[in-house]
């Protein structure tokens, strides 16, 4: 009995350069691709169509692409760094005492909020943060570490890490730059390659940078040393631009369910502190229906920056003799700590909702001012995360609603009034203007040409 290879060879025998085996293969392939409803009845028609239009792919196009040496080197570097993160050190590192966010535990809340980094990437991020904290000895610079999110650029994205600052910036001028009590309460670290475990610290932000970054829109390039051509001119490089963007985004979108934090009235000025354990246990867990009300169910646990880029009021300015000097212009008020959210800037939904809603459902808040900023609360937990390009929402038809912040809604100016057509105005004595009479066509040239020698004869 002939084997399958021998039978296949018989089907391939053809003196005209074509064989039955290839034709049947192409016919079956066309049936699998097109999936006709009556393949059995239309088999002969399909076979005839394949004979009339045979598949003749070019062999050059089917060749695999050559591997670029640079890409191969980048892949090899990524694999080596990823493997190094998984390697257990010979000696256990010293406990830094820093509180690290458990990203794998918060992943479920991220996904309910529509943010998914992927479990593999999130696990690498967790390892990268852990290795960085162990290697960098951060307790001297920060007291706790939180993963802020990812900022997209025109090349590789920035992964952002936030730490609570342990001290004020160097050479601090209170009128130009705030310290730990204001916009520089946090320090930020960024990386574009989490597997490298190398995070770059961003510089402290100034009030001028916070104000200037609100006046133009620019996508980040992915290079921290890149210049920032803009109008008005921005004082600094892209690292300063990113730091100013983070100051606006984090201060505006750091929200939590009402009751997680309390106001410390003993401090001057009053500050926000975590709720006591007894009070916290009495308030939580809350039902999802209570958290769905944006205005009464949530609070800003980080005070948003005001119009001049500050959390605190400007220090009093004095002259050479120590007498206070009146500030120019109207005073700018600071935002109140632990303030309620503005409903027009947030959208709330319950997940799972509808028929699947229960007391354990989580509530997801999405910022309408900063697309990509999400807050998720469930039971006794909440998370804030940002995944966006650093640009605020600016386009929406209609008038600006009351209480909306600058740059939230934009309506282009309406065109001017259309000019009216020419109106035949009356004469000085009030009589209407006589209608315009059409002149007859000129048949004879009123100024006939003169002879060339007419001037010479005169």
Overall average pLDDT: 83
Q: How would you describe the shape?
A: extended
How many strand segments?
Answer: 12
Helix run count: 12
Judged by helices, strands and strand pairing, the structural class is alpha+beta
Proportion of beta-strand residues: 5-15%
Largest sheet: 8 strands, mixed
Widest beta sheet: strand line-up: 4-3-2-1-12-11-10-9
Describe this structure in words.
With 458 residues, the chain is of the alpha+beta class. The protein is built from 12 helices and 12 strands. Strands 4-3-2-1-12-11-10-9 form an 8-stranded mixed β-sheet, with helices on both faces. A two-stranded antiparallel ribbon has the order 5-8. The chain is extended and about 105 Å long.
Sum this structure up briefly.
The protein is α+β, with helices and mostly antiparallel strands.
């Amino acid at each position: 009995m002939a084997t399958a290879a021998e039978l296949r060879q018989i089907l391939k025998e053809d003196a005209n350069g074509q064989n039955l085996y290839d034709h049947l293969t192409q016919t079956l392939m066309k049936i699998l691709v097109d999936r006709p409803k009556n393949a059995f009845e239309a088999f002969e028609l399909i076979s005839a169509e394949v004979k009339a239009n045979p598949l003749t792919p070019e062999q050059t196009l089917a060749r695999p692409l050559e591997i670029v040496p640079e890409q191969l080197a980048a892949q090899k570097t990524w694999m080596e760094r990823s493997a190094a993160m998984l390697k257990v050190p010979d000696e256990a590192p010293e406990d830094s005492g820093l509180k690290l966010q458990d990203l794998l535990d918060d992943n479920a809340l991220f996904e309910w909020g529509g943010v998914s980094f992927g479990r593999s990437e999130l696990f690498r991020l967790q390892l990268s943060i852990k290795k960085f904290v162990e290697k960098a000895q951060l307790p001297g610079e920060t007291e706790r570490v939180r993963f802020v999110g990812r900022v997209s650029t025109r090349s590789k994205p920035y992964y952002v890490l936030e730490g609570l600052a342990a001290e004020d910036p160097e050479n601090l001028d209170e009128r130009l730059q705030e310290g730990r009590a204001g916009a520089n309460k946090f320090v930020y670290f960024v990386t574009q390659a989490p597997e490298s475990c190398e995070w770059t610290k961003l510089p402290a932000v100034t009030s001028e940078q916070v104000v200037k970054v609100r006046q133009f829109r620019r996508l980040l390039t992915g290079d921290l040393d890149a210049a920032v051509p803009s109008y008005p001119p921005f004082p600094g490089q892209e690292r300063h631009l990113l730091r100013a963007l983070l100051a606006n985004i984090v201060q505006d979108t750091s929200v939590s369910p009402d009751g997680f934090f309390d106001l410390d009235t003993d401090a001057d000025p009053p500050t926000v502190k975590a709720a006591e354990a007894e009070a916290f246990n009495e308030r939580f867990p809350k039902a999802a229906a209570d958290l769905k009300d944006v205005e009464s169910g949530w609070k800003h646990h980080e005070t948003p920056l005001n119009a001049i880029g500050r959390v605190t009021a400007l220090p009093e300015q004095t002259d050479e003799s120590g007498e206070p000097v009146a500030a120019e212009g109207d005073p700018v008020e600071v935002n109140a700590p632990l303030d309620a959210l503005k409903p027009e800037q947030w959208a709330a939904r319950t997940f799972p909702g509808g028929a699947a809603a229960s007391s354990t459902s989580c509530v997801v808040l999405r910022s309408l001012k900063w697309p990509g900023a999400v807050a998720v609360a469930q039971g006794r937990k909440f998370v804030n995360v940002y995944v966006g390009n650093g640009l605020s929402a600016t386009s929406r038809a209609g008038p600006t609603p009351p209480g909306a912040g600058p740059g939230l809604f934009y309506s282009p100016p309406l065109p001017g009034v259309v000019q009216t057509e020419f109106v035949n105005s009356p004469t000085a004595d009030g009589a209407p203007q006589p209608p315009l009479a059409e002149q007859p066509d000129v048949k004879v040239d009123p100024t006939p040409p003169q002879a060339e020698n007419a001037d010479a004869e005169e």
